[in-house]
Amino acid sequence: MKKILITGANSYIGTSFEKYIHENYPKDYYIDTLDMLDPKWKEYDFSKYDTVFHVAGIAHKKETSENKDLYYKVNRDLAIETANIAKQSGVQQFIFMSSMSVYGLDYSDELINLETRLNPKTNYGKSKLEAENQIIELANDKFIVSVLRPPMVYGDNSPGNLTKLFDAVRKFHVFPTIKNDRSSISIDILSKEIRKIIEAKQTKIYLPQNDRYMCTYEIVKEQMKMEGVKVYYTSIFNPIIKFLIGKFEIITKCFGDLKYEK
């Protein structure tokens, strides 16, 4: 039985992964969760675990000049310190939850891969990339570092932008029929990928995504149909929306193309 420590309590990805393992592989893995808000976390015994899955971080929070330093304190410094303690404790593998934000793109006509330039624009993306760089330097034959850069993660009760979009559609009952392609990953697929990464034990950067790209219009239509919410779908706004892609952040994130290479 492999022993896994999830560092970061109450995160959507961490709790979803733990639930997935308990429901599907209860005899193969043992999981504990460590609350990183407790200052005594540094006294915790990491040595009994095979893998540390680090999900603690700040996301889905409006960036301001006041909270800028917090991103680096939590997303970078805390992650690096946790990785160092894991290595010193003899943990075999450290999995770091990074983000597609390290590329600094809201939309792109080009497919993104591991050769794509890293140019984060936000404190969230910058702090994640700086953490990646320093944690990967810790890797050796006895300490595996696996980095995940997932695109938008969605699922029931997810805290991300798709949930906010669904809420807006339920309120206004109107949505454009514009077609686009974006990489995304359901929490179920992501949980499966994390388990595969634990089994593979490779120092590697992963770009997980669903088999199919997501079209915002289609996923909204599917969700509203499932909920029985009546929505008027129209093409009248499509020319305006296409013109505004790249000019307004919320429009760009909803309707611009942003895809990992298959």
From TrEMBL:
Name of the protein in its database record: UDP-glucose 4-epimerase
Domain NAD-dependent epimerase/dehydratase: 4-172
Residues passing through the membrane, by range: none
Pfam families given in the database record: Epimerase
Top-level division of the source organism's lineage: Bacteria
The species this protein was found in: Amedibacterium intestinale
